[in-house]
Amino acid sequence: MNETNAGVHGCYTHQLLIHDTDDALVAGTAAFVELGLSCGGRVLVHSCEDRVALLRAALGTHRRLDYGFDRDLYVSPMSTLFKYERELARGPHASGLWVTGTVPFGSDHSAHPAWTRYESLVNEVLGPYPFHALCTYDTRALPAAVVGAARATHPCISNGVRQDDNPGYMQPVDFMTDPRAGSPSPPTSPPLAVITVNHTRDLRLARHLIAEVADAASVVDRDNIEGFVTAVNEVLANGLRHGRPPVELKVWVDTAQLTCLVTDNGPGIANPLTGYRSPGASVDSSRGLWLARQLCDELIIRNTDDGRCSVLMTIA
């Protein structure tokens, strides 16, 4: 068992607080906030309006303590993840950014897996930074499956005062293929369009095809479509450069979502989480994927059983 105040200055922690009473929530949050402030860190407490009001009444104010609402801060999993990464990369956060609150699973259960994957990917993306998180899961409000998955995405179990290493924790690269991650698969319906890319000169035609079918059959925001086209173009170019042509593009369109599947005949990617961590100032093969991930709601890399590499991308 590890004390939370042992060696936390300047390192990364991601803790899970499971509770079934408001008193346990307040006590755990208060201990975490006190530790963050005593270390000289900047602290953010976030949740829904009622819960923020409860915690604000208990915690009071401090010049390095901020409060926020999930509806403003946690718009979508990937935008939230990369927003934290950009903020930490800008620095300076020598004493750490301390964040505690809820993950906005909400009443739409179809959105739960994406936020569960977010909880795992936090460890991959923010691990290099002085970032400390205490995620609070209320068993009175959350489905048992969500709480169970949380036990696999947090390296430590905590009550705010003490933290234990979590024996059920899974590394993100392993969790993303676990059934609890609920990683999406391509649609089972026939694609609306298919194109084969053999050369970089074919990329322009592919970009035009995606934009054309999206305009004809989708209400996805124009700016989102343009960003998505850029992301798919980058993945296609990567398939030509690092894989082996031909590269196949399949496109599915429904009213509110665009889906693309890019498959090349190369040997695959050794680490399917490539492109989550910022490449910084370096210019390497991960920079394009890092940018593409920020333009999609999902970008899932899989190495297929027949030795090929497939990349599934979605935007809504």
Describe this structure in words.
It is built from 10 helices and 13 strands. It is an alpha/beta fold. The strands form 2 sheets. An 8-stranded mixed sheet has the order 1-8-7-2-6-5-3-4, with helices on both faces. A 5-stranded antiparallel sheet has the order 9-10-11-13-12, with helices on one face. It is elongated.
Structural class: alpha/beta
Please count the helical segments: 10
The low-confidence parts are 1-9
Helical percent range?
Answer: 25-40%
Distance between the termini: 43 Å
Q: What is the β-strand count?
A: 13
Mean pLDDT: 92
Q: How many whole angstroms does the radius of gyration measure? A: 21 Å
Instruction: Assess the beta-strand content as a share of residues.
Output: 15-25%
The helix/strand order is EEHEHEHHEHEHEEHEHHEEHEE
List the helices and strands and how they pair.
Layout: E1 2-3, E2 13-19, H1 22-38, E3 42-47, H2 49-59, E4 65-69, H3 70-73, H4 77-90, E5 97-101, H5 112-125, E6 131-138, H6 144-153, E7 156-158, E8 162-165, H7 172-175, E9 193-197, H8 203-217, H9 222-242, E10 247-253, E11 258-264, H10 286-294, E12 298-303, E13 309-315
Parallel strand pairs: 2-6, 2-7, 3-4, 3-5, 5-6
Antiparallel strand pairs: 1-8, 7-8, 9-10, 10-11, 11-13, 12-13
Helix pairs in contact: 1-2, 4-5, 5-6, 8-9, 9-10
Short description:
The protein has 316 residues and is an alpha/beta fold.
